[in-house]
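Appendix C: a fully annotated inverse folding record. The material below is reproduced so that readers can follow the format used throughout the book. The structure is listed first as tokens, followed by the designed sequence.
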């Protein structure tokens, strides 16, 4: 920076003026607000596009979504649990080991066989977890019954069961399997052989599996209720003064089939899909009667568990129709080693912008297919959305001027021809505009609210984003820098726009469209997340005023 002023021959002094000089990668006279040094790309890296790893279900925790039915002196409450008790986990492990040893032909094996859902005699309690095709969740089921004489309550007794419920679907088939296990953990009913029943000949008591849609094959009145095929009696003795005298477990299975019907006629995703939530319904009873007083002889009615959301679809581009569990959030694994510039840009927006955490499992994006193939009923195509974010400036200025809205490729953008074969015909790399959030999401700033946009930009479109460039600097290395041709970022922006190698930009998301979406059957409106390679940025302090750090292989 230098200050000057003019003095003419008569001694008249002019105003002081500031002059800035730049060197290297800078265009204007301000310091970089973003400078992430990038590692050299590794074209040999080829990580999996996704990992169908178990996740906690959002809001599936102790006390959430509990359901209570109370009538005629009976109260039944079902409550989701974060995890099974350790005692229950170990008891289930012993039960399973015993069944494996005796090979009881009628014992229904668990339908979820992954280690994350298998009980162990040691270690931690089992957790309520879900993948895109399997759920393994737990509940507390509490049953209370009151007895009266001449309108005055004479007794009240309780029983409590720990329930495990499993659901399994097939992404390339319409079969839906359910599995349940009941473990009594508390019973203060008096010593009666049939103190608590969920069946076993009682005309009211039952516990059944339900698929709540007419699209369930064999459904009647919009639902398909099936008796679990149980191993173990559905009646429990009393007399334990809290600790169950009768602690046997009951285990059962039930299977459904999607009949192939959908919400309408294609081509939209909404028309080619159908929701088939599954849960279990139950009505416990007791045949215990006190010497004085009795129950009010009123059926308390059915209660149902919080359910697991199954969705089946016939979207043509995903091949054979199939079903998934939509409470699971698929996560795209960006190959940070192969495409560090794209990973750094996405990570920067996820961690230092006005939409911090957007695109994580806790705050997922929502997928939007391209409207030009009919999967979305809209005139807003992906090209139209991108044009609002990445409309290219077509002028002939070459002096660093950047218009308010248009995207101008940066002259120092690091190109990567090594990502495409140059023989027999050379394939040139070109500068791309890399936008975050993506045009294939409802969070793209290019999609207006009137078209369903959840994060629309103002009149300046992509000009309102954090502006960066993946640039080659003086020493030949690559850095993600804020583009100093624009105003400095405030980090309150809700998007990112970067001048980047086309091979890097397109390659980084190639498996997103070709693998993740199809294998996870992600359709219009579905949640999904993107991991840019978080561990590569562990040395970056997003709490600092400026983002100056180095991206390093973990």
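Designed amino acids, in order:
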């Amino acid at each position: 920076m230098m200050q000057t002023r003019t003095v003419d021959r008569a001694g008249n002094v002019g105003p002081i003026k500031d002059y800035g000089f730049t060197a290297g990668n800078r265009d204007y006279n301000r310091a970089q607000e973003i400078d992430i040094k990038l590692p050299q790309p590794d074209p040999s890296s080829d990580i999996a596009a996704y990992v169908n790893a178990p996740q906690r279900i959002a809001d599936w925790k102790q006390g959430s979504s509990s359901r209570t039915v109370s009538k005629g002196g009976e109260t039944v409450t079902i409550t989701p649990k974060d995890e099974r008790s350790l005692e229950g986990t170990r008891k289930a492990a012993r039960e399973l080991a015993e069944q494996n040893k005796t090979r009881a032909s009628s014992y229904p094996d668990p339908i979820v066989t992954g280690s994350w859902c298998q009980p162990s005699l040691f270690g931690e309690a089992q957790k309520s977890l879900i993948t895109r095709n399997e759920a393994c969740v737990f509940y507390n089921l509490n049953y209370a019954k009151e007895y009266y004489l001449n309108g005055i309550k004479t007794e009240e007794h309780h029983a409590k069961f720990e329930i495990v419920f499993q659901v399994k679907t097939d992404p390339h088939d319409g079969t839906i399997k359910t599995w349940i296990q009941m473990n009594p953990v508390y019973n203060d009913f008096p010593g009666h052989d049939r103190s608590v029943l969920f069946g076993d000949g009682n005309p009211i008591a039952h516990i059944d599996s339900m698929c709540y849609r007419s699209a369930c094959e064999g459904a009647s009145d919009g639902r398909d209720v099936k008796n679990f095929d149980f191993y173990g009696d559905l009646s429990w003795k009393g007399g334990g003064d809290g600790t169950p005298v009768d602690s046997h477990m009951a285990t059962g299975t039930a299977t459904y089939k999607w009949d192939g019907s959908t919400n309408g006629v294609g081509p939209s995703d909404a028309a080619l899909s159908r929701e088939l939530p599954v849960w279990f319904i139950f009505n416990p009873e007791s045949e215990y009667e006190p010497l004085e007083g009795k129950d009010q002889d009123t059926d308390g009615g059915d209660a149902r568990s919080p359910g697991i959301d199954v969705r089946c679809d016939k979207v043509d581009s995903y091949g054979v129709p199939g079903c998934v569990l939509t409470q699971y959030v698929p996560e795209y694994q960006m190959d940070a080693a192969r495409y560090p510039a794209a990973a750094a840009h996405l990570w920067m927006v996820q961690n230092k912008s006005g939409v911090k955490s957007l695109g994580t499992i806790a705050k997922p994006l929502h997928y939007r297919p391209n409207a030009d193939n009919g999967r979305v009923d809209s005139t807003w195509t992906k090209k139209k959305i991108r044009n609002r974010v990445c409309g290219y400036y077509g002028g002939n200025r070459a002096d660093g001027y950047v218009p308010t809205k248009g995207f101008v490729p940066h002259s120092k953008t690091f190109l990567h021809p090594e990502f495409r074969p140059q023989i027999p015909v050379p394939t040139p790399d070109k500068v791309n505009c890399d936008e975050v959030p993506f045009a294939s999401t409802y969070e793209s700033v290019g999609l207006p609210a009137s078209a369903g946009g959840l994060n629309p930009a103002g009149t300046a479109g992509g000009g309102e984003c954090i502006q960066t460039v993946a640039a080659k600097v003086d020493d030949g290395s690559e850095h993600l820098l804020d583009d100093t041709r624009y105003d400095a970022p405030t980090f309150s922006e809700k998007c990112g726009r970067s001048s980047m190698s086309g091979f890097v930009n397109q390659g980084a998301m190639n498996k997103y469209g070709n693998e993740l979406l199809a294998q996870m059957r992600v359709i219009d409106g579905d949640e999904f997340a993107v991991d840019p390679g978080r561990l590569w940025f562990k040395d970056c302090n997003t709490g600092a005023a400026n983002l100056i750090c180095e991206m390093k292989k973990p």
